[in-house]
Amino acid sequence: MSDVERTEFQLPERDVVDTRLQAGEQDAETTLRPRSLDEFIGQQKVRSQLSLVLTGAKNRGVTPDHVLLSGPPGLGKTTMAMIIAQELNTNLRMTSGPALERAGDLAAMLSNLMEGDVLFIDEIHRIARPAEEMLYMAMEDFRIDVIVGKGPGATSIPLEIPPFTLVAATTRSGMLTGPLRDRFGFTAQMEFYDVTDLTRVVTRAATILGVSIDHDAAVEIASRSRGTPRIANRLLRRVRDFAEVNADGHIDMAAARGALEVFDVDEAGLDRLDRAVLSALIRGHGGGPVGVNTLAVAVGEESTTVEEVCEPYLVRAGLIARTGRGRVATAAAWHHLGLTPPDGTLGLH
């Protein structure tokens, strides 16, 4: 059986989740995932729209339209796909774009679908072109053409597929081809979370993990989570470790701040690498402009790491700006490092 055929995923019942937690939280990410639209925190507009799509399809007794979820990593796209399958009371079969290297890989996955199944393809913008072209017909007509043989003797055999719902996730919607994007009946853009919603995420996760936490400590963790629930949950687990080792296990403001300091997460949510990039840009090159390759060499990382891991948040936080000549530090970046920006610095009033 190939990698793309390992397939069926059933969401655990509540009592199974609790048993896993007691057994040692071997899969914390799974246990913290909400299992319904009502449990899902944040993304109010997406949840309302998706609820209409799913409820309307269930009332008509038909398979819902295909769903495209786009947005940065960690905002809940995979969780939303699991919830869709749960709301429809059907199976979820999971794969990813990079795993579908050939049309045959996709054909094997599609041929195993049952009527009403949800097929989730993560990072769909990385799917191979032959597989993408096969997916067009599967999405529209619920059939594919399988080529048997080679050369002049090759024969095309039509294969009917039971109606299914494709849920696709992408972090780069601009890389999707027009024909693929147009075949989705519902497209949702996942947005970054505000501190209020992230505080609810942290509080809910703490309850599931059996951790006692003060409200102000939850706010502190949420404010340093870059607007991303995945990061909030990860920081909560590290703060929990700190509180269990250095205190009585209860997370108060002192424990939260102490843990986040130990794990190099500052008040703005910047980690060691983020601050190294800012320091190289400001202290090493006077605030820029500097090319990304130069910054990468200065901090000892690959340029793709700086560009894809650090820069998105630094730009969104208003600490650096991308210009035609290179990266430039803003006045906020100078102030964040405790330095006085020179006259003419971007953002200086």
Description of the structure:
By secondary structure, the chain is of the alpha/beta class. It has three domains: 187 residues, Rossmann fold; 68 residues, Helicase, Ruva Protein, domain 3 (Orthogonal Bundle), CATH 1.10.8.60; 65 residues, Winged helix-like DNA-binding domain superfamily/Winged helix DNA-binding domain (Arc Repressor Mutant, subunit A). Helices cover 46% and strands 13% of the residues. The chain is built from 15 helices and ten strands. The strands form three sheets. Strands 1-3-4-7-2-8 form a six-stranded mixed beta sheet, with helices on one face. It has a two-stranded antiparallel ribbon with strand order 5-6. Helix 5 runs parallel beside helix 6 and helix 13 crosses helix 14. The N terminus is likely disordered.
